[in-house]
Amino acid sequence: VLIACNTLLPVAMVMNSALNQSGPDTVSHVTLATPKLGKGTSLTVGHKSSVHRVMSLDVTQYPRDFSAVGQFGQPAVVPKEKELESRNRWDEGHFNVYLSEQIPVDRAIPDTRPDACSGKLVHDDLPTTSVIFCFVDEVWSTLLRSVHSVLNRSPPQLLKEIILVDDFSSKDYLKEPLEKYMSRFPKVRIVRLKERQGLIRARLAGAAVATGEVLTFLDSHVECNIGWLEPLLQRVIC
């Protein structure tokens, strides 16, 4: 499911019109004619399935090291004897790279969702997704933490794959070491671009090989929290 921004309005208008003519639990099939999707493109709108509360899935609830720096989102401080090293390494990522490296790449973080989010109902038959990260010379710890957060807090039946698109990075640690590290995760694969393409073309390269029903693009320096995925996929089908 990939709809260009300038097609959202006509798509939404047709879908709303179809749904207003049918019951809340019926499935309607409409034919669209939009600049991007083309005449005669079909989409199924409406939904009929049972629902469940958003899953509170987090395999890091019981981390390996409860006392690790930054565990459970606790504040972390650079030791005085490491302040110079921390400042010297700032330009590697334009943030505190030294401190990021002290924090586990699969750390636990608190569930910060409001009650309205944690109690939200979603359909049982949500589509699968391919999560695509595009990066250039990303800091090792933040890239790995991004991937781990998706693996650890996504319902496995919905996470089809994670695609890492390397937009011609120059850092050695993003070559063979990254391949070796990610080889332990069957759902993760790496796409290497042979020259710098820029963000949009890198995303298109990821989309070209994706097999999930929905494409989810994330920055390569994020942490997904509990219950992050299902509400997004719910918006796609409703």
From TrEMBL:
Q: A Pfam family in this protein?
A: Glycos_transf_2
Which molecular function terms from Gene Ontology are attached?
polypeptide N-acetylgalactosaminyltransferase activity
| Keyword set includes ATP-binding | no
Q: Which PANTHER family does the UniProt record give? A: N-ACETYLGALACTOSAMINYLTRANSFERASE, POLYPEPTIDE N-ACETYLGALACTOSAMINYLTRANSFERASE 5
Cellular component GO terms, alphabetical: Golgi apparatus
Q: Which UniProt keywords apply?
A: Disulfide bond
Q: Which domain of life is it from?
A: Eukaryota
This protein's species is Paramormyrops kingsleyae
The Glycosyltransferase 2-like domain is annotated at 130-235
Gene Ontology biological process terms from the UniProt entry: protein O-linked glycosylation
Q: What is this protein called?
A: Glycosyltransferase 2-like domain-containing protein
